[in-house]
Amino acid sequence: MTVVETPQTRCRAAIVRCDITPPVGCYHRMWGAAMHDRSTGVHKPLLATLLWLEPVDGDATQALLIVALDHCLLDTADIADLQSGAATAAGIALSQVVVTFSHTHAAGFLSRSRCESPGGELIAPYLSDLRVKISSLAVTIRKHAQPATILYATGRCRLASHRDFFDAQRQRFVCGHNPDGPADDTVLVGKIVAERGEPLATLVNYACHPTTLAWENTLISPDYVGALRETIEQVIPAPCLFLQGASGDLGPRQGFVGNAEAADANGRELAFAALSALQSLPPPGTHFAYSGPVVSGATLGTWRHEVVCKAARQLHECWRLDRLEIPLAYRPELPTKSATEAELARWREEEKKAIAKGDAELARDAHARVERIVRQLWKLSELPQGRFPLHVQLARLGDSLWVFVPGEHYQLLQKALRERFPQLPLVIATIAGGWQPGYIPVADAYGRGIYQEEIAVVARGSLEQIVGAIGDALDRML
Description:
Elements: E1 3-4, E2 8-19, E3 41-42, E4 47-54, E5 64-69, H1 76-90, E6 97-101, H2 123-141, E7 146-156, E8 160-167, E9 172-178, E10 186-194, E11 199-206, E12 219-220, H3 224-235, E13 240-244, E14 250-252, H4 260-279, E15 286-295, E16 299-307, H5 310-316, E17 319-328, H6 337-357, H7 360-381, E18 388-397, E19 400-405, E20 408-409, H8 412-420, E21 426-430, E22 439-440, H9 451-454, H10 462-477
Parallel strand pairs: 3-12, 5-6, 11-13, 19-21, 20-22
Antiparallel strand pairs: 1-15, 2-4, 2-7, 4-5, 7-10, 8-9, 8-14, 10-11, 15-16, 17-18, 18-19
């Protein structure tokens, strides 16, 4: 081999950002074990980052608008409202807008189903304001689009660990650091460089649940994603966009704490790995080529960055968007709404008994069960009848493939697809377009008492079905 190619996309791009931090005192409880309802302060601001990508000819009908939000999840109707507002404001089709979530668990559970809870009165006004902010950014972003090149590289980071841990003493699975489990350490990065040479943005695609901060934390926070962005932006003066990978079975080694510094440390760990990969990128429109020997004390082989040929440049401009619907079967043992409501009533009674006895620990555990069942009811109420239609957005952008998929998938999704397409950088963004149908575990996780499987609504084998369908669709795109 005498030439080393760097995967690239030639396009027109723009990026804009705004602060979307909820007001202090807004409903914040995300964890069943939490003892608070309202937030008490802000660790770092929550951000909305919009990235506009379109082909080099400026055809807006082929543009892709990514709306990346520092939230765990939102109601399906509110996601659709944000998507619709952004599409109308930008003057593009609804299918061209993808709403993604960093999935921080410290942003607060801003579901309209919590409007009657303490601090819940602030949820509806906040969501209305959020729609206005996103639409305002979408109006302006097209005007900022300019010729650019995206360069891709891959790094490695050990922040994420497998989180299906078997507690041998208690003979049960818990959701936490499993040092013996497999964990995908892939960090896919991108650097968007303007035609004049200045950086427009960076991209970090990594799979790890932002669950550093848990029930003891009362601060609004983007979790590790905040320090990740800040650290990268100190080195590369351009907005950093984070896309959450397939992290259903992945979380930080150090997590479930109330200490914000731990979240910052996790963010810096990922940032340093991403920066290492970003620093390896060559100038846009070049490849690294062997230029011949030079006789010195030894005969040296020299390599140089050279401008790519016209054919390669045309490949960098390839552009195709596609959508895929994958019908997923529900698990046959999925509990009914009435059975779930009966279970909810039972645990509410257990919580009352524990409070009456003055047993704070038992009351906390019972309330956690109540919270879990309330969320199951919320999830069941939003599920379509028949089968779940999983809508996947696919893109072939130059030398890269992009996949946007709803739900929380186990890491198999990204590992299997990257093994199938090793020659191209593959951007995998989950919880994109929505959180439903929730967790999608691997087939052999079913029936073992693992939390993600216990609350999953789709049948065993759904993840493997998704991997196959997306892989076949990407093959057709290529």
